[in-house]
Task: inverse folding
């Protein structure tokens, strides 16, 4: 069934878009990530212009993270103080990221910078997660105490001042690394146009030792806030959010996120981290392939909006 | 003497110009194409007859037709990838300023066979002869038709079905009655379209006519598009609320306990 989209100005297959929303929503609910890094390329692939895709995906991510966040909230696995502290760093990071975006664009190095940072981030994060989770799984199978959470071990992170206690996550850390992580996520998000959930989740797990249980719910609250504001900002400045496309993606997304969240909670932490690592590395390798292999078409055209 | 020469020259120009002995009567199947939620592309038909200006005029029959349909203008960046440090990345780009978002050239036979190359270029017949101005530094100007950015821009637009060149696009039903189908694919931009019809005989332009149609969004599509454009902030807040509501609804519907 074809439906004409009023802003994207082309018809799409309703069931295809619903299925895409469902699949990405499932992954989103399972891992507590937005899934924008999967959905945006999918939409561009079916012919929607990149500007409309990025703007409309933000509302889809808001919907599926809202649906996921509510079900985590019922299970009391959201750390609101942690989310707020991350958000404080995130706002500053976004501002600096937008500034650097403009500087790089005037230097004409934006495409290369974005390409390389995507590649390095995705492959490095993916590889590290796979390495760590495989080790944890092997350790568990050998019957050794599967406790990477060393209560007594203190890294340099724990020597920093401004210590705060996050009760839900059962951690007692300085606010500085929390702000820093928020800053990095906001910064990367502004430059690469992603919410950064796939970076936030591993950072919280490995640097702050937040238990996997609260990580996902907390990440979802953060994603909900940033993506709901991104929807409003995109609509107010570029007028490129396609509400009809958004609604179709949302309906698929929220249903998928519900099943995903359930699947995620029934899975062991290290297995979940292994799967997310494989997913992130896969997208990274796909990206590397695109950058290294000679493209089929050296030319591309894109309409300039707002001139 | 000078005066006589001027008159003679004037007559000569009139003979080779548009003021021929033919009159062109055209009709288009739809002047307004409505884009509703079920729009998946369409086509409209142009009909026309070539009539002698006066009953006594000599009737020719070897007519060639060229119909050019151009849609709303847009600005498009064409980028080229090159290998930098082993990575394929966009390096060079050209900005095409106010070029037609849709351009169809429909003719009754091979474009080169209609008239000489100079006339084709002057009358902008064929995609190769269309004026596609580029931003060159502070200036805006067209470049040679074999410029790689121009060639690839046209190629990519043709792949999208938005630039069309059909040498069998105009059918002469009788020696003086013709028909041309204008294909409008799904991604055709919304806006005003100009139709320019030129008739040649023996390589000379003998008559020219213009027509127009428009592509407009209607109903719900129109409502959403104008809301997004005119009330961006409210539209954004409404979309964000819709996202939160949908998320909340799903968590109620799928609640297990």
Result:
């Amino acid at each position: 069934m074809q439906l004409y989209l009023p802003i994207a100005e082309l018809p799409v297959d309703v069931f295809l878009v619903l299925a895409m929303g469902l699949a990405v929503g499932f992954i989103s609910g399972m891992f507590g990530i937005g899934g924008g890094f999967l959905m945006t390329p999918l939409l561009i692939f079916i012919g929607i212009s990149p500007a409309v895709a990025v703007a409309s995906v933000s509302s889809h991510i808001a919907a599926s993270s809202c649906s996921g966040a509510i079900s985590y909230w019922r299970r009391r696995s959201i750390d609101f103080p942690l989310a707020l502290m991350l958000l404080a760093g995130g706002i500053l990071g976004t501002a600096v990221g937008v500034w650097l975006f403009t500087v790089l664009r005037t230097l004409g190095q934006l495409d290369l910078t974005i390409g390389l940072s995507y590649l390095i981030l995705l492959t490095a994060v993916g590889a590290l997660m796979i390495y760590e989770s495989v080790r944890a799984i092997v350790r568990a199978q050998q019957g050794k105490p599967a406790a990477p959470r060393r209560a007594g071990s203190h890294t340099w992170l724990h020597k920093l001042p401004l210590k705060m206690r996050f009760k839900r996550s059962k951690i007692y850390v300085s606010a500085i690394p929390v702000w820093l992580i928020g800053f990095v996520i906001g910064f990367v998000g502004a430059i690469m146009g992603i919410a950064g959930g796939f970076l936030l989740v591993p950072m919280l797990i490995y640097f702050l030792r937040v238990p996997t249980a609260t990580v996902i719910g907390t990440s979802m609250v953060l994603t909900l806030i940033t993506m709901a504001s991104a929807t409003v900002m995109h609509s107010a400045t570029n007028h490129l959010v396609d509400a009809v496309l958004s609604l179709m993606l949302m309906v698929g997304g929220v249903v998928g996120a519900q099943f995903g969240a359930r699947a995620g909670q029934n899975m062991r932490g290290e297995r979940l981290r292994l799967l997310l690592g494989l997913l992130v590395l896969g997208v990274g390798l796909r990206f590397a392939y695109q950058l290294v292999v000679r493209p089929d078409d050296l030319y591309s055209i894109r309409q300039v909006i707002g001139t | 003497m000078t005066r006589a020469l001027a008159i003679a020259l004037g007559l000569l120009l009139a003979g080779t110009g548009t003021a021929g002995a033919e009159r062109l009567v055209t009709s288009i199947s739809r002047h307004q194409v409505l884009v509703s939620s079920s729009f998946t592309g369409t086509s409209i038909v142009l009909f026309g007859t070539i009539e002698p200006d006066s009953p006594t005029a000599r009737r020719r029959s070897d007519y060639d037709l060229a119909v050019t349909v151009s849609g709303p203008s847009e600005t498009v960046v064409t980028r080229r990838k090159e290998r930098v440090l082993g990575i394929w990345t966009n390096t060079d780009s050209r900005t095409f300023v106010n070029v037609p978002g849709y351009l169809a050239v429909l003719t009754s036979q091979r474009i080169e066979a209609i008239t000489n190359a100079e006339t084709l270029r002057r009358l902008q017949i064929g995609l190769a002869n269309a004026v596609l101005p580029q931003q060159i530094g502070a200036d805006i100007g067209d470049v040679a038709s074999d410029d790689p950015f121009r060639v690839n821009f046209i190629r990519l637009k043709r792949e999208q079905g938005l630039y069309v060149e059909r040498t069998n696009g105009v059918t002469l039903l009788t020696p003086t009655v013709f028909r041309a189908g204008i294909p409008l694919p799904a991604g055709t931009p919304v806006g005003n379209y100009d139709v320019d019809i030129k008739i040649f005989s023996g390589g000379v332009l003998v008559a020219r006519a213009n027509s127009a149609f428009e592509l407009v969004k209607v109903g719900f599509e129109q409502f959403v598009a104008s809301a997004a454009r005119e009330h961006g902030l409210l539209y954004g807040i409404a979309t964000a609320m819709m996202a939160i509501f949908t998320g909340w609804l799903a968590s109620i519907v799928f609640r297990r306990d």
Summary: The first helix of chain A runs from residue 14 to 31.
